[in-house]
Amino acid sequence: MELQANPQLLWFIGIYALIMVGVGIYMSKKVSNSTDFILAGKSLGPFVLMGTLLATWTGSGSISGGETSVAYSFGIIPSLMLMLPTLIGILILYVIAPKIRAFGKYTISGILEAKYGTSARNLSSIIVLLAYVGIVSYQMVGFGFILNLTTGISVELGTIISAVLIIFLAMIGGLRSVSQTDAISGFLMVGGLLITVPVIISIAGGWDSIVANVPDSHMTATGGLTTIQLIGYLLPSLFLLLGDQNMYQRLAASKGDKSAKKAQLGWLLIMLIISPAISIIAFTSRSLFPDIDPGMALMATTLALPLGIGGILLAAAAAFIITTGNSYLLSAATNMTYDIYGKYINKNASDKKKLVMTKVFIVLLGALSYLLISYFPTVLEVQMYSYTVYGAGITPAILAVFFWKRVTAIGGLSSMVTGVVTTLLWELVLGKPFDLNSVVISVPAAIIVLVAVSLATQKKNK
Question: Where is the signal peptide (predicted)?
Answer without folding.
Answer: none
